């Protein structure tokens, strides 16, 4: 697989991060070509921070690293799914997942 | 929750779609304000198709609808996680999930 093919349409593609064992979705972040390469080379997740405009080794500061177990890509080759083993919390708020809030007031039936 | 808050930074935000029962990640698509509202109103997923530039009721043509069971949003309020019950295949290739290909040639330890 030529990694360039992921970045034909856009220099940044979304990467869904999922806990390998429980399948809990932890977060979504963005990868460019370089962060994907560093993820593959190191076995830990690297992203491109859109707010700070820099490469970002998830957990390098907090210690909450994500060890990559598997990496999948979708049919359109413009989204990644990264299966990880998360150390500590994925979310900067301290929650294990960034998706800790449910959209309230909505009923979706059975 | 004011839905507008999701669209402050961008008119389109990624929505991860996950099978409610098995927690398999099925696909990622994009929602604008109107598609999110229609998803909430109907209980089935609606997206904004970036390629066709139109609202898209997932499964309206194929019959492979996604019944929404729950909807979460992340800490930054710029990504949605939609828990669904998928009818048939989520992927237009016939695979249940769009993430049916593993990035080959990579070893992630263990």
Keywords, please?
homodimer; globular; two-stranded antiparallel ribbon; 1 helix; mainly beta; 110 residues
Spell out the blueprint of helices and strands.
Two copies of one chain form a homodimer.
Chain A: E1 13-19, E2 25-31, H1 33-42, E3 46-49, E4 54-57, E5 66-73, E6 80-86, E7 101-102
Parallel strand pairs in A: 1-6
Antiparallel strand pairs in A: 1-2, 3-4, 5-6
Describe the structure.
With 110 residues, chain A is mainly beta. In chain A, 9% of the residues lie in helices and 35% in strands. In chain A, strands 2-1-6-5 form a four-stranded mixed sheet, with helices on one face. In chain A, strands 3-4 form a two-stranded antiparallel ribbon. In chain A, strand 5 and strand 6 form a beta hairpin. Chain A starts with 12 loop residues before the first strand and ends in an 8-residue tail after the last strand. Chains A and B meet through strand 1, strand 2, strand 5 and strand 7 of A and strand 1, strand 2, strand 5 and strand 7 of B.
Q: Specify which chain pair forms the largest interface.
A: A-B, 39 and 40 residues
How much of the residues of chain A is beta strand, in percent?
35-45%
Class of secondary structure makeup of chain A? mainly beta
The overall pLDDT average of chain A reads: 94
Count of DSSP helices of chain A? 1
Kindly report the spatial arrangement of strands forming the biggest sheet of chain A. 2-1-6-5
How many β-strands of chain A, per DSSP?
Answer: 7
Low-confidence stretches of chain A: none
> What is the overall silhouette of chain A?
globular
Roughly how much helix do the residues of chain A carry, as a percent range? Answer: under 10%
**Major sheet summary line of chain A:** 4 strands, mixed
Radius of gyration of chain A: 15 Å
**N/C terminus separation of chain A:** 41 Å
């Amino acid at each position: 697989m030529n990694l360039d093919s992921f970045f034909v349409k856009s220099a940044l593609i979304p990467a869904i991060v999922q806990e390998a064992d429980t399948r809990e979705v932890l977060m979504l972040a963005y990868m460019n070509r370089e962060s994907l390469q560093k993820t593959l080379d190191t076995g830990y997740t690297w992203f491109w921070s859109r707010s700070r405009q820099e490469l970002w080794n998830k957990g390098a500061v907090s210690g909450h690293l994500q060890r990559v177990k598997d990496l999948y890509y979708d049919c359109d080759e413009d989204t990644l799914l990264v299966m990880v083993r998360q150390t500590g919390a994925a979310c900067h708020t301290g929650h294990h997942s960034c998706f800790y809030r449910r959209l309230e007031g909505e009923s979706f039936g059975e």
